[in-house]
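User: Predict the structure for this protein chain, please.
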Amino acid sequence: MGLGTARTLGGEPRGSRRRLAETADRSGDTKGNYNTCSRHFVDDDNTTGHVWDGDLREMNNPLPRWWVGLFLITIVFSLGYLALYPGLGTNAGQLAWTSTGQYDAEVAKANKELEPLYAKFAGMPPEDVATDPQAMAIGDRLFMNNCAQCHGSDARGSKGFPNLTDKDWLHGGSHEKIQESLLKGRNGLMPPMAAAVGSPEDVRNLAQYVLSLSKSPHDSLRAALGKSKFGTCAACHGPDGKGNQALGAPNLTDDIWLHGWGENAIVAMINNGKVNQMPAQAGKLTDPQLHVLASYVWGLSNNPAKVAAK
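Assistant: Here is the predicted structure, written as structure tokens:
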């Protein structure tokens, strides 16, 4: 018999020499049913002495030695683990191991192994890197791992995320500016301007004027009324609406709409403003990787054949 219970025939185990019954604990419910638990001290039937229902007894078998051995080993292992690794409050452990530290070490090791590969492109101008098949294959992998989540696998972007395959650049499309954007990130801010523009009708008129700048379908009468209100926008977008790359202010005359087209989208932008952020990649990519990735992105808008192929 293993650990557990045994039901004996006739209420008594065979061969018992002594049995001292304690007072039974009887308790009844509202229907008059009773459960009986008695305890008998025994010296030869290999039970703990607990008896339920008159003949259901708990056996008293020892644990297997191999199981006890494994249990003791797990205790020793856990004590050793907690001494070496973090696990007790703020104690860092003797090895001072952290998942972040392990990740950084693995990345540093991988970058060290890849240095000879990137060294080939470090001294090449971006125009040459952008036409090198091996460099572009590496750049494509870097783009997929770090940029495609926002700009799309084809780099054509989506609402709120710029298209990198055209010539419309918020902060400049040169290799240097692209690398600067990758290195430092970008923070775009347009404050709510409705209070400076005037009434809701003034805001709608201004939206029609903005549409007219790109020769989009618009209400010419409202556009004429809204022209005078554009002065509140000219500080960033310029008096001609062509934008300002030093501020990241978009060109309003090219019919490229980052956050949506139409009167409603423009009115919402004027009323609510907009905050956009591109995270910096300086802590994730090495300088040679940034050079290759910037050359790859530059090539997307300066190599029509590659853009067509994507």
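Residues 5-59 form one domain.
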